[in-house]
Automatic annotation (TrEMBL):
This is Glycine N-methyltransferase. It is found in: Cytoplasm. The gene is GNMT. Its EC number is 2.1.1.20. It comes from Ceratitis capitata. GO terms for cellular component: cytosol.
Amino acid sequence: MPTSADSVFVARSAGISAEGVRDQYADGKAAKVWEIFIGDKNSRTENYKNFLVELLRSKGCKRVLDVACGTGVDSIMLLEEGYEVVSVDASDKMLKYALKERWNRRKEPAFDSWIIEEANWLTLYDDIKPIVGDGFDAVICLGNSFAHLMDNSGEQYDHKKAIRNFQKCLKPGGILLIDHRNYDDILQTGDTPAKSIYYNTSHTADIKTSVLFYCGKPAMVSLDYEIEGNNLSSEFRLSYYPHPLQNFKKMLKEIFGEKSMHKLYGDFKEINVEKKPAFYIHLIEK
């Protein structure tokens, strides 16, 4: 018999825990629906898995910090590929799925030593400083996760602070992999592609897009997901800061330095292959 969520999940604020502001995952319901929707580690597309694993391997990465691990899907994939992974997220309700997987597979050495922490991007380096040590080979922030962090100042102070924390967690020569949706296209067309490049799912999703403007500038994009399939009927809302591509590139260069190596991918391919990618993936080196 089909089940239905008893409420529409409101957007969490800034993708981080904050006093007096509701976290969209706080009651655990949205986390549960999202876990069902995206499926397990085997639901990750081969294109994504091959892109991430081969890229990390080509850069000689061994120690990886997943700063938006959510339910642990990507971290688990990397652990199984032989990487040493530290996983953090702001939502304890999302982390419980990763913690459960670690417990279930605790007899495997990689999972027994898997470090999982609740952490805030704005205080990340200080939160996990003892774990950082000499620095990570790679920091990953994927799945459009960074866009959860809103701009409360109008000057992107929190965005820059978070990325500086990511940079501080890297060793010299380490890389940051960070992505965002093609918000330039979303703002121009008013539509969001329903198909994800990150996961295969047996559920179908209709996405309704709305844009909030502040002082004439787009300040937030809200995506209302309506999910059907396998006896699941639910809806929830996720809200994001709409990063324009050129602004994001400029912000990365400001923090990492103008001479830092930066490469852009579109949907896990060379940027000139996809004319209108759904996602942009940035690689920048410390």
